Amino acid sequence: MDKIYEIEGGINSVKGIYSAGVCCGLKEGKEDLALIYSEKISDAVGVFTTNAFQAAPVLVTQEHLKQKRAQAIIINSGNANACTGKIGFDNANQMAQLTASALNLPTESVLVASTGMIGKQLPMGKISSGIKKAADNLNRLSTDTTARAIMTTDTFPKEIAIEMELSSERKARLAGIAKGSGMIRPNMATKLCFLCTDLSIKPTILEKIFRKAVNQSFNNITVDGDMSTNDMALLLSNGLAGNACCRECDLEDLATFQDALTYVCAHLAKMIIQDGEGATKMIEISVQGALKQEEAKRAAYAIAESPLVKTSFFGERCLWGRILAAIGYCGIRVNPELVDVYYGPIQIVSKGTGTNQEAEAEKILQQKHINLLVNLHLGSEQAKILTCDLSKEYVTINMGYS
Amino acid sequence: MDKIYEIEGGINSVKGIYSAGVCCGLKEGKEDLALIYSEKISDAVGVFTTNAFQAAPVLVTQEHLKQKRAQAIIINSGNANACTGKIGFDNANQMAQLTASALNLPTESVLVASTGMIGKQLPMGKISSGIKKAADNLNRLSTDTTARAIMTTDTFPKEIAIEMELSSERKARLAGIAKGSGMIRPNMATKLCFLCTDLSIKPTILEKIFRKAVNQSFNNITVDGDMSTNDMALLLSNGLAGNACCRECDLEDLATFQDALTYVCAHLAKMIIQDGEGATKMIEISVQGALKQEEAKRAAYAIAESPLVKTSFFGERCLWGRILAAIGYCGIRVNPELVDVYYGPIQIVSKGTGTNQEAEAEKILQQKHINLLVNLHLGSEQAKILTCDLSKEYVTINMGYS
Predict the structure, then answer these.
(1) By C-alpha distance, which of B184, B135, B171 is closest to B301?
(2) What is the CATH number of the domain that holds B314?
(3) CA spacing 20 to 30 A to B46: which of A54, A259, A383, B85?
(4) What is the count of structural domains for chain A?
(5) What is the pLDDT of residues B149-170, one digit of tens each?
(6) How many helices (H) and strands (E) does chain B have?
């Protein structure tokens, strides 16, 4: 990690990347259409929701990605274009066509993403004029409006840019934007995340490295256990950094890039959890000592998605029985008489029973970032996931969301 | 069902059953200790939580039930005696011993149940004097205090009594009490439920009929997806109705009893959902047209436990995309282009896309009892479960529960 530095700016800090965020009228008075463009055709890879109801833009983008090349990404918020049938599919295709025409590209070079309410048809008049406006506004300046244009219930834009030192004494950059913040329980993908790099790297390796980074970041978070129909993470690599080495598989540079990509994805995943709907706290749940990694992960998710555990974190109350109950019903192998639980440094459960340290644990629970550690003491496998609490504000946001 | 009538009264309306509910000081100024006693030793069966962290009373009761006979049940609320180690186990045993001694019974004839906060040791002084008081107060009058004594966050006591006509022109009675109302996602058991009947029936058949009734009632409900460490449903059958037929396996009477038991369990399960923590609505979710019954059930639970679906019911908003998303991520086989969804009589989704009937559906959503029907149109299997909405009050109750 000593070869990776966070830098100012967003995706436009990557060589050859232009972007724009404009208002097209889907979200009154707010940016709702984002365009990302690479001056050079790029290698492109993506991961997508495993929800059976994949939204139209997910289907179109998967189709276009078959050639593993892309030059632009068009994204709207305020409407998910999901469960919209044949018309919705045609509209997603038309979004790609309109963008391709404005940028003078083949349609297949444009990837499409949408986020917002499910089940409404896109107002294509607004989208069409918005796409022209976005193409006219493409720039290499601030990317704040681009990051804002993909937000739904997010309260702040999420972006990060880093620079990495390559062995050839060259440098390359990697940057991304993402959005949350409800219906977050990614599986092989995330809500929406768009990454660009100017590193030159073999496409087959790119895909492998990308999947690994996503598995270690976006696939380890949950806000509410609800997996979206629109989850998508895309990565464009335009090769403009000028390095030759990664195409020749310089192992050291590949390791650097893997570190960089995992770092960037984890950073964005963390921002999504910090901005989870109604969240007041971020909770890092580690389950250790499991017989299988999958069992550790299942226990961590059961804890993270238990409404009783989540509300106790919101209330800053040390009700550790709810944590044991969740481990107990998630279907993994567990010996109740071996389990230890810690809130930060405070051991609250020893061998399955309480240590009477509630008062000390509740001091830890007042913090904004809490580490919860469970040790099953059965094996050596572990898993770590990020989640947030469940507040009254979550209910308020979602009882009326439209 | 024409041989079954609801009658006034609670468990004491069953021949030979006495009960009492007293205050022993676990819940300030409220009844917190219940005792149920049969004047005749009874056949007894039970079903229990499958949570790996089974509470001490669950372990003790399972041990005592090995003889398939019991004469009394002692239950405290306000303390779950779960995750309490060796001391907790000894305390649960002592509850049985103290009750046995007060009633002049062998210890193995007493079953024990607890509900309330996890992880605290029982104050045995209070329990001990409470048991004496309860034994002194055993009566055949109102059972309201008995039903109240097993409540935790419940807002009303839950009891029902029925009479059934047998083929021999005799009658028998069946009655029960239950409690909710958070950590409700039973699996082969329910939170707490105690049933008594004076019907005479073979113990092996009793167990089979009981499991079937539980599977069709308590195992089809969820408040928050959190399965408790203390779930338990017990049934005592003292044979005082004087019928001989069921021991000889009169098939008609067995069918009547199966209907009666399923009716009583379903009634109590429904009351638990109506009184779910913070619940403002009861929602009956039917999933039809599945390839397997298990898949129908998985989809129904995914819908019922989605925080986004639950909050939309609380907000009385027709956000049907959340229902499709839940079906889409629960891992069952589904063809998005075939799915229909109805809110009451209003079809809101046809072949996977919206019908623009939101305004009509939202009138249905204003009701207190809502039927949601999903048809997958893949096969002929179905499942039905009961749940409630997720309100701000649920968060308020659980952020500070102690």
Answers:
(1) B184
(2) 3.10.20.340
(3) B85
(4) 2
(5) 999 889 999 999 999 998 878 8
(6) 11, 16
